[in-house]
Amino acid sequence: MDIYMLKTLTARGNGWLLNIPKPVMKLLGLNPETSRVQLKIKNNILYVQEIFPDNPDYDKYLVKPLSKKNTSYGLYMPNSILDLINVNPETDKVNLEVEDTVLIIKKAL
Predict the structure, then answer these.
(1) How far is Cα 42 from Cα 60, in angstroms, rounded to an integer?
(2) What is the 3-state secondary structure (H, E, C) of 17-72?
(3) Global pTM?
(4) CATH 1.10.357 applies to domain 3-107
(5) Which has the closest alpha carbon to 40: 109, 92, 107, 105?
(6) Alpha carbon of 95 to those of 32, 38, 54, 61, 81: distances in Å?
(7) How does 19-31 read in b/e, with b if 16+ C-beta sit within 10 Å?
(8) Contact 39, 81 (CB under 8 A)
(9) For residues 1 and 100, is the Cβ–Cβ distance under 8 A?
(10) What confidence tens digit (pLDDT) does each residue in 6-59 have?
């Protein structure tokens, strides 16, 4: 089952936070308090999925924890990541898509 949703980013420090709803976290199999995710970018699309330290790809990609904000969690993205996916967080929204255990983030058209 694929899920699609449109989201805005929230300013946080020198970057931006993408709030990930709890049901989406469950679909991805993420425990927001302990999970680490790897970020891959291809063709202006950001792919996010859980990764464990014993995975041979652990050092090949950017690995980040999930950030806590109030009672929810999200993915903190520095401006450089947003530049690579061609998103201006002040004017653009992002489209989230869940395929299996991968969160796909791209600029909403």
Answers:
(1) 14
(2) EEEECHHHHHHHCCCCCCCEEEEEEECCEEEEEEECCCCCCCCCCEEEECEEECCE
(3) 0.92
(4) no
(5) 105
(6) 21, 18, 31, 22, 15
(7) bbeeebbeebebe
(8) yes
(9) no
(10) 999 999 999 999 999 888 899 899 999 999 999 999 999 999 999 999 999 899
DSSP class of residue 1 equals -
- 53 — phi, psi (to 5°)? -60, -25
Q: Tokens 């891959």: give the residue.
A: 40
Residue pair 96/5 in contact (Cβ under 8 Å)? The answer is yes
Segments making up each domain of the chain, as ranges: 3-107
Which pairs with CB-CB distance under 8 Å and at least 24 residues apart come from 82-88? 82/9, 82/15, 82/16, 84/41, 84/44, 84/46, 85/41, 85/44, 85/45, 85/46, 86/44, 87/9
- Tell me the β-bridge partners of 10: 17
